[in-house]
Amino acid sequence: MKSLVPLLSLCLLLAGCRGPASGPEAAPKEPLPEPAPQPAAPSREPPLPLPPGTPVSFERELALVQEVRQLAATEPVRGFRIAEGDLLEHLKGSFAREVPKHALLGTEEMLRLLGVVPADFDYEQTVLGLLKEQLAGLYDPRLDAMFVRDHLEGAELEATLYHELVHALQDQAYHLDEFSAWKEDGTDRASALSALAEGDATSAMYDGLFAVLAERTGTARKTALDLSNAELLTGLDAAADATGDDGVPPIVRRSLIAPYRDGLLFVQGLRRRGGWALVDAAFQQPPASTEQVLHLERYLAREEPLRLPVLSPPGAGFKKQLSDVWGEQSVRLLFEEWFPRAEAAAFAAGWGGDRIAIFERGPERILTWNLGLDDEAAAQRYLSAFARTAPVKDDRFCQLRGELGPLIAARRGARLVLLSGPRAPSAPGGADACREGLSWAEQNLDG
Asked: How far apart are CA 371 and CA 375, in angstroms?
């Protein structure tokens, strides 16, 4: 979004997020998936102009990263020290180039209609403002160049270099611009790819920091595999739970951290089973969904997501603005608005597939969501999570929300359909809105 917020994962493949350099016993080895043929280099669009910066060599750091990551560079990595303002301007230009305007506006509407951002929420400005706090450096796969803020020094500089140089190696071997290209209905897939890329870079970053520490102190070298999951996640969870007076909706802040957090656990699991070779195999056969990232056994089993159709809204005259697949990670981040993290994860488990869409008719906006779950128990959990305090009768509910319009959900078996809106200055409400929405739900469950 790569992560909820949909589209955010696109800029995360470029952005290096600041964070502290902070497992269980190794699991039994499992067979590696059969590697697919390596993709051919994509035809690239003309890149943005190279931003102003001072060329610098990262040759020593690159040598260390190749060693700890066990992935060889095929060419030198161009590096630049760059002023904060120039780095942010470059990221802003990349963001505008990669993400279509209708996707930004449609995503804003999805979040508004789900009631998790204010009515005046500006997706692009919020994300760029948050990245301004966190951005330490980035690797741009379209320019084949790495940029690091010119004021960084010490451990923060080392961590940023190791993380971004892993992205450079990933790009040389696996073509990251294929990973980061925006696609309609592609949020879940992009979020899974972002998690793989960020988890790989973060895990290898720890190894690099431990290698330098061992050299400086004369102690035994550790790796990220020597840390427990709790130790690995301490800093990331603190960042995800941070609140401030900057006006950033909590769901956006958590979404910025999710690819690092979930990806790190995924890559650690791969390394424990098959070392870096299994991580490389994952780039050749990437996870098809965030469900596979969150549940490693489903990746190893290659459990594919359901392909579900867009549900048209009730009433005539609506035009589709955007459709998407959110995936289990985005659903979990949504549920974290209402429940503690562990409880939200339990509610979100059992995802099988989804298709969410926004429609417009004049000033009205309406959301439909088609969800397929693994079984009836999972669908019941989803229904309970969406309903929260609303009364549920016969596996359905209708909650009136003023200008947001009604929120309606209904379940049958392992299927769940949800309708939010229409959102409008004078949205219809009351019994008629509930009756129409519940009738729509019934028809779609029959279909």
From this structure: 12
